[in-house]
Fold this protein.
Amino acid sequence: MVIVMPKPDIRFHVWVGAFQYSIQFVADLKKRYGEADKDKLLIRITKKCAEPIQRSTALHEIIHAYIHAHNHDLKEVTKEEKFVRIAEGLFHILADPRNTEFTQWVIHGTSEG
Ligand SMILES: [Zn+2]
């Protein structure tokens, strides 16, 4: 008997600061749309929801990864300064030429619909 392990469905890699995360699409995440595993540098997105929700979820998880990486410099600042830094961080990630494929997908998606 041959046990066939499903191949991990990793479609994108995205640099968040010093670390490269893999974006993996999975069948089910039990009521969650996505999750960021900061130890494995892995973001999982459920295939159960429509692609625009997957894209929005990917952005959400990237923000988690960014905050995790910059937690120490975000702790002591005002709420407004947190927004400034997170927005700048997100802008950097999306504008990073190493993340072009990911950014294209998040902003425009893969299908015309
Ligand atoms: Zn969250």
Summary: The longest strand covers residues 9-16. The helical segments are 51-69, 71-75, 79-95, 100-108.
